[in-house]
Write a structure and sequence with these properties.
This protein has 180 residues and is mainly α. The chain is built from 8 helices and no strands. Helix 2 packs across helix 3 and helix 6 crosses helix 7. The protein binds one DNA strand of 38 nucleotides through helix 3 and helix 7.
Length: 180
DNA sequence: CCTAATCTTATCAGGCGCGGCCTGATAAGCCCATTAGG
């Protein structure tokens, strides 16, 4: 409040991805899974995604947010309880099957893919959802990979200026044109 | 208001090639990150 929310709010639509709306049934499955397994590996997330007909990246995000909001019990506590009552063969979570793929395969970007990404990054280190999707299509990888790539890149290049979350996209555009 | 989407930062881990670097993937966020859409 007391913000200039009324003055300039053309607010470029689609800067953010459209908000996902999970159905009751989907939520039930997600919550049930979470209660048994708050840290599902990649294979499990994919299976879940298929089961409730959504994308793996949405599942991944949902679990991240859920863990942040419902800190069930921390890993340390899990570890401690494991050590004190040595439970043979029982890992943290029952369904963390060793043979299952836990991490997503590391993406190996080709030279040309990297070239495209770097060029886009120079142009705008904070691409909106449409831009990321276009990039993803151009280089033939999922959008979530593009997002991860930008996050890592910003972090490692120490992109400054957005300490407090991102700035208004309009300001960003203005900033860009001013600079050159 | 609730919560999905986004962000930064720190850390794990695969690939390359043989010690340690580069970088993609993952998790936390602390008086429990911030922002914003329905």
């Amino acid at each position: 409040m007391a913000q200039d929310s009324s003055s300039n709010r053309p607010m470029p639509e689609n800067y953010r991805r459209d908000r996902t709306k999970f159905t009751k049934e989907q939520l039930k499955i997600l919550i049930d899974t979470f209660n048994q397994m708050p840290y599902p590996g990649y294979a499990t997330r994919r299976r879940l995604a298929l089961e409730i007909n959504t994308e793996e990246s949405r599942i991944h995000l949902w679990f991240n947010n859920r863990r942040a909001r419902y800190p069930f019990r921390k890993r340390e506590e899990q570890k401690e309880s494991l050590e004190s009552s040595q439970d043979p063969g029982q890992d943290h979570f029952p369904e963390q099957i060793p043979s299952e793929q836990v991490r997503q395969c590391r993406t190996i970007y080709s030279r040309s893919q990297l070239h495209t990404l770097i060029k886009a990054f120079r142009n705008n280190p904070y691409p909106g959802i449409h831009c990321r999707e276009q990039l993803a299509e151009d280089i033939g990888v999922p959008e979530s990979k593009v997002q991860t790539w930008f996050q890592n890149r910003r972090s490692r290049l120490g992109v400054q200026g957005k300490k407090k979350y991102r700035m208004n996209p309009l300001d960003k555009a203005r900033d860009k044109t001013k600079k050159k």
